[in-house]
Design goal:
The complex is a heterodimer of chains A (about 110) and B (about 110).
Chain A (H helix, E strand, L loop, with lengths): L3 E3 L4 E4 L4 E7 L4 E9 L6 E6 L3 E5 L2 E6 L4 E6 L8 E9 L5 E3 L3 E6 L1
Parallel strand pairs in A: 2-11
Antiparallel strand pairs in A: 1-3, 3-8, 4-5, 4-9, 6-7, 7-8, 9-10, 9-11
Chain B lengths: L3 E4 L2 E4 L5 E7 L5 E7 L5 E8 L2 E5 L6 E7 L2 E6 L8 E8 L3 H4 L2 E2 L3 E5 L1
Parallel strand pairs in B: 2-11
Antiparallel strand pairs in B: 1-3, 3-8, 4-5, 4-9, 5-6, 7-8, 9-10, 9-11
The chains are: A mainly beta (about 110), B mainly beta (about 110).
Chain lengths: ~110, ~110
């Protein structure tokens, strides 16, 4: 079992709709979670970070964490074509001093 | 102004050659990393250095050798390149507490072995 799992997609969402990206993790020692966005041919850039159960909102982005279910999600409201990218979920395990990444979900927003 | 810079951006080389990739960060971060990203976008950690000390050395062929002359620089030397080494290699850095801050990535080096 992979430590961090994501559906690789592609996930196709119409412009203006809500895109929902999901991630599960296996290590209960995971302390915090990160969402990175990676455009084709570019490097990953950090868009959200969450460590407490519940929701965290930043503009059009909402990260959700449920530690009991070992589940993290990213919601993108009012999706734009510029949101089309691969979204990488990562966990930081206590004491490990590294991030473990999922395989990424490719998101396409259709105009 | 670039926070984490890697050179070169592209590298095309023949099997059996030796090549190096350089990375520098000006963020004052304590820890630097090398990751390999395969064609399916999966990012896998290779090495990590904290203030010039090797702290993570994942299962990587010993043809790969990292070197950190100081905490702002981390280089990756690859001997006897193989076709399977073709990938994008990312350097990243983080402050001491990666759990709170995550990584800043460099722009990547696309290595193609022919």
């Amino acid at each position: 079992q992979k430590e961090v799992e994501q559906n690789s997609g592609p996930l196709s969402v119409p412009e203006g709709a809500i895109a929902s990206l999901n991630c599960t993790y296996s290590d209960r020692g995971s302390q915090s979670f990160f969402w990175y966005r990676q455009y084709s041919g570019k490097s990953p850039e950090l868009i959200m970070f969450i460590y407490s159960n519940g929701d965290k909102e930043d503009g059009r982005f909402t990260a959700q964490l449920n530690k009991a279910s070992q589940y993290v999600s990213l919601l993108i409201r009012d999706s734009q074509p510029s949101d089309s990218a691969t979204y990488l979920c990562a966990s930081a395990i206590q004491g490990a001093q590294k991030l473990v990444f999922g395989q990424g979900t490719r998101l396409t927003i259709n105009p | 102004d670039t926070a984490v810079s890697q050179t070169p951006k592209y590298l095309v080389t023949q099997m059996g050659n030796d090549k190096s990739i350089k990375c520098e960060q000006n963020l004052g971060h304590d820890t630097m990393y090398w990751y390999k990203q395969d064609s399916k976008k999966f990012l896998k950690i290779m090495f990590s250095y904290n203030n010039k000390e090797l702290i993570i050395n994942e299962t990587v062929p010993n043809r790969f050798s990292p070197k950190s002359p100081d905490k702002a620089h981390l280089n990756l030397h690859i001997n006897s390149l193989e076709l399977g080494d073709s990938a994008v290699y990312f350097c990243a850095s983080s402050p001491r507490s990666v759990s709170l801050y995550g990584y800043t990535f460099g722009s990547g080096t696309r290595l193609t072995v022919v």
